[in-house]
Design goal:
Number of helices: 16
Radius of gyration: 28 Å
Distance between the termini: 24 Å
Strand content: under 5%
CATH architecture of the largest domain: Orthogonal Bundle
Structural class: mainly alpha
Helix content: 55-70%
Order of helices and strands: EHEEHHHHHHHHHHHHHHH
């Protein structure tokens, strides 16, 4: 049984508003009120329909998200699938030492961080800009049409996206044919390591910018219209209203998504990159996910790949905690609120 102490005057309006229902209270004259909370069985009877409704989702989450975490134990073993986890010998931190001394691992780390930083600057603001521009349209029919067209590529697979870019920017693509037809020297952007960073960023923008725009459109709809009206009465133009009303209203969502993006920064698109790895070479396209795949799956060095993946997970967690701390310094809740 849990009890909380509240003032007498604070509990009276609450009891009147609820019509006498809710947790029972005991109160003496000129004494603090003692609120008696519901027990575990009473709460279960009250919420059992909601518990049973969410139980399948919780079981699936535990089965496919949390149970596999126990497999990280192979990072501390010389694991062989032929003998299993129980019979594989323990090697301690030897696999982590091998990973940190591998030059190919650091090449993958460098490529991952470069791609993440580049996309954070040139890709992350695009959905925000699209949402603000689309929200400024007056006609709802035109707005809905443009929104459907912009986020349609999100439903395309990366195989189709890469194929579309190949038909446009490849050696026999539309752009190259037009250049050759007009006397210019042709180019094959799809196999050029120097332009690979721009290529994958443009692919990500075309595929996912429209889908990310939906979150910011929902945040824009939550802004009180009276704030725009008050700003207009005070003489603020369109740009000042955007700067002083729209962007502050989007700031909590922007910070939250930025934190989540930083936490996922070491995963920069496995399928997108592995499809184009052979065309540009591992020096330009090798990232942590592809490094773990080729090391662990293709070479069969499961413990080595598990150690690399575990290092990636720890660094991602540190990035989330650090970014969330910065959000608290700016007065935002972030992923979780500080106590």
């Amino acid at each position: 049984m849990t009890t909380t102490l509240t003032k007498v005057g604070d509990a009276a309006p609450e009891a009147a508003a609820s019509g006498g229902s809710g947790p029972k209270t005991r109160r003496g004259k000129d004494k603090p009120e003692v609120r008696i909370g519901l027990g575990l069985k009473a709460r279960f009877r009250r919420d059992k329909s909601l518990i049973f409704m969410t139980l399948p989702a919780v079981l699936l989450l535990g089965l496919f998200a949390y149970v596999p975490i126990m497999g990280n134990i192979v990072a501390f073993q010389d694991y062989s699938p032929f003998v299993g986890i129980a019979n594989s010998p323990w090697v301690g931190l030897d696999n982590f030492a091998r990973v940190l001394s591998d030059a190919n691992f650091w090449v993958a780390v460098k490529n991952t961080l470069v791609i993440t930083a580049f996309q954070l600057i040139f890709f992350f603001p695009i959905p925000i800009i699209l949402a603000i521009l689309l929200n400024s349209l007056v006609r709802p029919a035109l707005r809905a049409t443009i929104q459907a067209i912009v986020y349609l590529p999100h439903f395309f697979s990366w195989v189709l996206v890469v194929a579309v870019f190949q038909q446009i920017l490849g050696g026999a693509g539309l752009l190259n044919q037009q250049l050759l037809a007009n006397g210019w020297q042709g180019m094959d952007i799809m196999t050029n390591p120097d332009t690979f960073l721009f290529l994958i960023t443009s692919q990500s923008i075309w595929k996912d910018a429209g889908w990310g725009m939906i979150v910011f459109l929902a945040a824009l709809n939550a802004i009180d219209p009276s704030q725009y009206e008050a700003a207009a009465v005070d003489g603020a133009g369109r740009w000042k209203r955007m700067w002083h009303v729209t962007l502050p209203g989007l700031r909590p969502v922007i910070i939250l998504l930025l934190i989540l993006r930083l936490g996922d920064s070491l995963s920069v698109g496995f399928e997108q990159l592995i499809l184009q790895r052979d065309a540009v070479g591992a020096g330009a396209s090798e990232v942590l996910d592809t490094f773990v795949y080729f090391t662990g799956v293709q070479n069969g060095d499961w413990s080595y790949a598990a150690a690399a993946g575990l290092i990636k997970g720890v660094v991602s967690l540190a990035l989330i905690l650090g970014a969330n701390k910065v959000a608290h310094l700016f007065g935002e809740a972030g992923v979780y609120s500080k106590k």
